[in-house]
């Protein structure tokens, strides 16, 4: 066993990781209770690698179902040679996802976070997960580009092409939406409930249903575009998380927010142009128009929710900067519980250790 980590029970679980380095203060006032220190044992290498091996197994099972669950021929894959599974599958998986969150929260808060350093316990597991997502999404980008450049897949205005390889990548992209549930699971297990926002949960649930609907009604043709852009964003994001966990700097970190907003806007514009083209051609069916509506609603709703999240985060950052400036001028900032120096140090520690997880 490695050396123990000491944290104070007076610290909120969501703030424990950023505040564990600061010493707890004992109030000797009559009637007050001094915070009790709990010794958190550092997890053994065996337990860390056991968690990592479980993640590898999950990837293996997912890969077998996604890539080979229809046989070894892509021509038999859903959307190409067969139909996608019924609505009962996304319903059961998304409902299970929602029910799992409070259960994991309870286990983490009452047991796991009280006995072991969860951040260290899950480090290798999260490295494997994030790197695996980079590989999967990178593979999808390759298949989409290969279909466009070498397999004759039309760039826009197509509804029915399914044999270029792009539709199979769309199917894998849909299946990956369920694997991405682990984004939230890791947040909850590590006590980062401040990151489990409505935007985050809405995105994971709604995007799974949106892509299932696309696989039912419109798996070919222009359906590839949204999956291609989303895969590019995910390569950037999961690469950043992997590098952060390994304590490496990421040069494109500052561009992630702009890239996400550009993704939403580009998909809406592409969908509108595609709609006009297929409408004029007169070869679309009602199900195709339904997919246009679902795609547009999903992207627009995410755009506005993400803009709201981004605006609130920016406003909070501006307020903190103003408070720091007031402190330097000798005035007392409003409602500050810790010093500006310790706040900046905690934020720096979170960023360098990769604690800040995505909302998209």
From TrEMBL:
It catalyses: an acyl-CoA + malonyl-CoA + H(+) = a 3-oxoacyl-CoA + CO2 + CoA. Residues 321-360 are annotated as: Disordered. This is Elongation of fatty acids protein. Its EC number is 2.3.1.-. GO terms for biological process: fatty acid elongation, monounsaturated fatty acid; fatty acid elongation, polyunsaturated fatty acid; fatty acid elongation, saturated fatty acid; sphingolipid biosynthetic process; very long-chain fatty acid biosynthetic process. InterPro entries: ELO_fam (IPR002076). The chain crosses the membrane at residues 49-69, 89-107, 127-145, 157-175, 196-212, 224-241, 261-281, 287-310. It is found in: Membrane. Belongs to the ELO family. Residues 332-351 have a biased composition (Low complexity). It comes from the Eukaryota. GO terms for molecular function: fatty acid elongase activity. The lineage of its organism: Eukaryota, Sar, Stramenopiles, Ochrophyta, Bacillariophyta. It is a multi-pass membrane protein. Keywords: Fatty acid biosynthesis, Fatty acid metabolism, Lipid biosynthesis, Lipid metabolism, Membrane, Transferase, Transmembrane, Transmembrane helix.
């Amino acid at each position: 066993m490695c050396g123990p980590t000491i944290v104070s029970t007076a610290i909120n679980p969501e703030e424990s990781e950023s505040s564990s380095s600061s010493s707890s203060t004992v109030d000797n006032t009559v009637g007050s209770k001094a915070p009790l220190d709990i010794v958190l044992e550092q997890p053994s290498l065996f337990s860390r690698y056991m968690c990592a091996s479980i993640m590898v197994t999950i990837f293996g099972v997912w890969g077998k179902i996604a890539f080979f669950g229809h046989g070894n021929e892509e021509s038999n894959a859903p959307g190409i040679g067969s139909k996608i599974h019924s609505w009962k599958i996304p319903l059961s998986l998304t409902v299970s996802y929602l029910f799992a969150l409070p259960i994991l929260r309870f286990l983490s808060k009452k047991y796991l976070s009280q006995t072991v350093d969860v951040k260290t316990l899950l480090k290798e597991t999260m490295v494997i997960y994030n790197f695996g997502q980079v590989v999967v999404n990178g593979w999808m980008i390759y298949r989409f580009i290969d279909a466009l450049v070498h397999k004759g897949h039309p760039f826009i205005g197509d509804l029915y092409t399914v044999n270029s390889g792009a539709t199979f990548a769309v199917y894998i992209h849909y299946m990956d939406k369920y694997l991405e549930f682990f984004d939230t699971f890791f947040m909850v297990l590590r006590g980062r409930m401040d990151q489990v926002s409505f935007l985050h949960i809405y995105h994971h649930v709604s995007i799974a249903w949106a892509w299932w609907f696309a696989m039912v009604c419109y798996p070919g043709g222009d359906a590839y575009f949204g999956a291609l852009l989303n895969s590019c964003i995910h390569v950037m994001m999961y690469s950043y998380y992997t590098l952060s966990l390994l304590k490496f700097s990421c040069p494109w970190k500052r561009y992630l927010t702009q890239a996400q907003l550009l993704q939403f806007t580009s998909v809406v514009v592409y969908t509108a142009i595609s709609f006009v083209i297929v409408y004029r051609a007169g070869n679309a069916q009602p199900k195709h128009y339904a997919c246009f509506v679902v795609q547009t609603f999903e992207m627009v709703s995410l755009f506005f929710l993400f803009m709201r999240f981004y605006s609130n985060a920016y406003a909070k950052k501006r307020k903190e900067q103003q408070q720091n400036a007031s402190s330097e001028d000798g005035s007392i900032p409003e409602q500050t519980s810790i010093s500006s120096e310790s706040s900046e140090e905690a934020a720096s520690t979170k960023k360098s250790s990769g604690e800040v997880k995505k909302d998209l």
